[in-house]
Write a structure and sequence with these properties.
Helix content: 25-40%
CATH superfamily of the largest domain: 4'-phosphopantetheinyl transferase domain
Distance between the termini: 44 Å
Number of helices: 7
Strand content: 25-35%
CATH class of the largest domain: Alpha Beta
CATH topology of the largest domain: Ribosomal Protein L22, Chain A
CATH architecture of the largest domain: Alpha-Beta Complex
Shape: globular
Radius of gyration: 18 Å
Length: 224
């Protein structure tokens, strides 16, 4: 077990080392996406970024080093966007927020993490393209089955899942069913964009969905 209390004392005095950002996407003048490829060791990540006491406690409770590294790498992305760990907070539903009122959404998957920051509602997801998604497709695909590309089925399903996950992160109250409440309009892989909806009770709104393939991962972000 790491001695986090001791490291917290060191963190308040250490010099932060700047590490490389994988990619930045400026979706529009109000919206930016920051992507980190996680190649560093846990110690390298942990020892070169500021974490507040609440974040340190969360890291200590994580059983997976992969999750720890994903969590910490997001703090590097915050720094790239001009924020610190103190500028981020979570509400009771687990959703992240920035103290200045800008919208933020966070994702991390295996060796990548990403954040999206905007003046408007946004959601982001990043998924590794894996064959296993075909086994769970029945849990989230409804009318989308009408336009699936059977030749590139894994990629197309991953894009649909990411689109619905991004929309799920936008909805303020939760309780959404992926099949029922988050329909995606027909799109092809080559389009690299789609239209998605949140349809639940009195919340009825559409969003622009954007896709990007990064190595064997699918990045998806939704915004309006």
């Amino acid at each position: 077990m790491q001695n986090y209390e001791l490291k917290y004392e060191v963190q308040s005095k250490k010099h932060e080392v700047k590490m490389p950002l994988f990619k930045t996407i400026h979706a529009n003048k109000h919206t930016s996406i920051f992507i980190w490829r996680i190649e560093e060791s846990f110690d390298s990540l942990f020892n070169n970024i500021y974490l507040n006491s609440m974040s340190l406690s969360r890291v200590e409770k994580m059983k997976s080093e992969s999750h720890q590294k994903g969590f910490i790498s997001v703090r590097y992305l915050l720094k790239e966007a001009g924020y610190t760990d103190d500028d981020l907070f979570y509400t009771g539903d687990g959703k992240p927020h920035l103290k200045n009122g800008k919208r933020i959404s966070i994702t991390h998957s295996y060796t990548f993490s990403a954040i999206i920051i905007s003046d408007t509602q946004v959601g982001i997801d990043m998924e590794k393209n894996r064959d296993k998604i075909q086994r769970i497709a029945h849990k989230f695909v409804d009318t989308e089955s009408d336009f699936l590309d059977d030749t590139h089925l894994v990629q197309h399903l991953t894009m649909i899942w990411g689109a619905k996950e991004s929309l799920f992160k936008i909805h303020p109250d939760g309780g959404l069913l992926f099949k029922q409440h988050l329909p995606i309009e027909p799109f092809s892989i080559a389009d690299k964009k789609a239209k998605g909806w949140i349809k639940k009770d009195n919340f009825y709104e559409n969003f622009d969905i954007h896709f990007e393939q990064i190595e064997d991962f699918t990045l998806v972000y939704a915004m309006n």
